[in-house]
Amino acid sequence: MSTPHLTAALDLASRSVPVLPLRAGKVPFGNCPDCRDNACGGRPNMKTPGPCTCPRPCHAWAAATTDPAILTARPWATAWAQAQAVAYHPGGAGLTVVDLDDRDAVTWARATLPATRVVATTRGEHWIYRGVMPSANAVRPGVDVKSAMVYARWLGPGTGTMTSLPDTVRALVVKRPSPVRPVTVPVPAGGGECRHRAPAYLERGIAMAEQRITAATSSVHATVYRTFLAVLSAHGRCGCLTDAHAARLFAAAQTKGESPRHCTDAWSNARTALGM
């Protein structure tokens, strides 16, 4: 049965825009009869535990499609009659949506971002650019970026000429290091025999650990944990390691974007692993 939402979805699909139906609350319908509530694989609301064995991606942005046969087949064939809106995967269409959620965000965009196609929303505007980038929420007050691996509501074609994705938008999702905050961290009480040949041995070890953390270009969480583990293994049982040494390592981790809590957890986990 054709509905206005299905008609709009088929039109978008014919223009290479991957689409899916949304129910009330902007929640996507699952595209698999064996999955419920957009969850699959070992969840309590599954019929059977274990990984999803659906023949195709079945949830949210991953289910968005341009195939009219999928859009009109069960279970979506019946979902369109209940759908409250059409959603699309911007990244799959080669697009990025800057979602401006209030008037202050719109004012900021007009003063900061290059003009492009604009779509009015209930509370603000969608600014749509050509190009794909990582998505992120709350990149600044009232502003989300929707592109790869998310869906956005289709609210009409909008007005204005669509332009290329600018660096000013890409820069919004660049992770900024957390400010370095003073921390007090527990160090082992020590009591074992000191194996250090000189104070310079410990200093060199701490300096190397700081360098290892700050040089990390990926897997920062894992690098921080492994570095803490190595430092505690070498220097944590004799009492030479002080709060000041640990604080230096925490500061290095925070310059890479780790929060004080992440640092504390990694330190605690490393101590537990070593039986301290």
Task: Describe this protein's structure.
This protein is an alpha+beta fold and 276 residues long. It has ten helices and ten strands. It has helices at residues 4-14, 60-63, 68-71, 76-82, 103-112, 167-170, 199-214, 220-235, 243-255, 260-273, and strands at residues 19-23, 27-28, 85-88, 95-100, 117-120, 125-130, 136-140, 143-146, 152-153, 163-164. The longest helix has 16 residues, at 199-214. The termini are far apart.
Task: For the structure shown, list the relevant keywords.
276 residues; alpha+beta; 6-stranded mixed β-sheet; 4-stranded antiparallel β-sheet; 10 strands
Offer a concise description of the structure:
With 276 residues, the protein is of the alpha+beta class.
What's the structural blueprint in terms of helices and strands?
Blueprint: H1 4-14, E1 19-23, E2 27-28, H2 60-63, H3 68-71, H4 76-82, E3 85-88, E4 95-100, H5 103-112, E5 117-120, E6 125-130, E7 136-140, E8 143-146, E9 152-153, E10 163-164, H6 167-170, H7 199-214, H8 220-235, H9 243-255, H10 260-273
Parallel strand pairs: 6-10
Antiparallel strand pairs: 1-2, 1-3, 3-9, 4-6, 4-8, 5-6, 7-8
Helix pairs in contact: 7-8, 7-9, 8-10
Order of helices and strands: HEEHHHEEHEEEEEEHHHHH
- Biggest β-sheet strands, sense, barrel: 6 strands, mixed
Helix content: 25-40%
Number of helices: 10
β-strand percent reads 5-15%
Cα separation of the termini: 66 Å
Low-confidence stretches: 41-50
What do the pLDDT scores average to?
Answer: 82
SSE class: alpha+beta
Structural Rg: 26 Å
Shape: elongated
Strand element count: 10
